[in-house]
Here is the input.
Amino acid sequence: MAPRIEDQDLIDRDERLATRRFGVGHAVITSVVEDQIDHIPPELFFADATADAVGRHPWLVPDYADAQGNVSLRVQAFVIEIDDLVVIVDPCVGNGKVRSLPFWHDQSWPFLESLGSAGVSPDDVDLVIHTHLHADHVGWDTHREGDGWVPTFHRARHLYTAADLEYARTSGMDGEDVFGDSIAPVLDAGLGDIVDRDAALGHGLVLEPSPGHTPGHVSLWVESDGQQALITGDFLHHPVQFAEPDWAEIADADVELARATRRRMIGRATETGALVLGTHFAGRPAGRVTVAGDRWRFVPA
Ligand SMILES: [Zn+2]
Ligand SMILES: [Zn+2]
Here is the structure.
């Protein structure tokens, strides 16, 4: 059984990219960071946003925004250890991938080393869960070997929703092939499973449909000993969206559906008191949601 950790436990000392652990009942959830970009003008990711508008929410500083209203975003995976099961959720961008976005293209991040520092080897992983199949959520599923891409988590079952497999096959940015380099090799190796969008996966892990960002997007509930956590995926990208839930993110496929999903899922997180782990949240990525007037705010753990 994984060690019981009551509160966040910092297991390395690089504050900016710190690997952090959170206890949920007898589950332990670890954030393993691939990269974080700070001081981003918010309108680059949220068309309706301005730095002034972000600045109206001072509780975002310093973890999620700077004093000028520019935002931080990170790419991280969450590792869940529960009973004897090791699960990784949304394994980031990966190394050496041809990508249209320059800050994701042909990288050489020490992600597997960070995973190792958290006590997990790729050989240990039993299950890979994807909230959706954008390039920053499937990258480490494969790594380069010779001329090809081979599965990294070679013992693991990799879960996909049918809707997002189809979406990944038929969409994507010019000049990159996420399906070909990061999904097809896993399917070809017989390591992929298609699951329902509300599947109960055992060990207190339950998917909930949260469509809009992509058609088959799901979020993950973790329930253990009466405690709950929610791993968001991309139904929201930044804590400012608790206060500004109508701000669409540039990659939201169906903006109106994404808005409705965001409000519904934030409402569920508030009612349940769940620990919310934001897939792209910088700094302190886990916390709880409180009601603030007719909106919400995020209180980091
Ligand atoms: Zn996405
Ligand atoms: Zn993403």
